[in-house]
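Hey,
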Amino acid sequence: MKRITAVLCAVLLVGLMLTACGGGKYADSKYLGKWSATKAEYAGIEMGVEEILGGEFSFTLDESGKVTLKVVDEEETGKWEETDNGIIFDDDDKMTFEDKDGVLVMDYQGVTLTFEKAE
C-alpha cells in the first residue's frame, strides 16, 4: 500500500511540474491579453464603439485557449484559436479577426470593428 501511495504521489508531482512549466496551448502567442474595440466603421463613416453599442466591446485571451468576451454589460466565455492571419472565436457564432499591422479587425454585418491591445 505504501508503494502504491508513493507511486501516485510521484505521478501527481510530475504532472503538476509539467503543467506549471509547460504553459498553455498559446503561451507564446502575441495575441494574449485584453483587446478593446476602438473604432467602428459602417458605409465609410467612422464612429466610436460606445456610440453604436452604448458601451464597451472587449475580449481577453488566455494561454489555454479561453476567451472572455464583454459586450456592454454582457459577458461570455468561449474558445479561441490562432490562425495564419489572426484569430477565431470558435463557438456557436464564429467570429474571425484579421491581424492588420498589430490591430485586429472584424467585419460583422457590414460594420468593421478595430480592436487594439490594452497596455
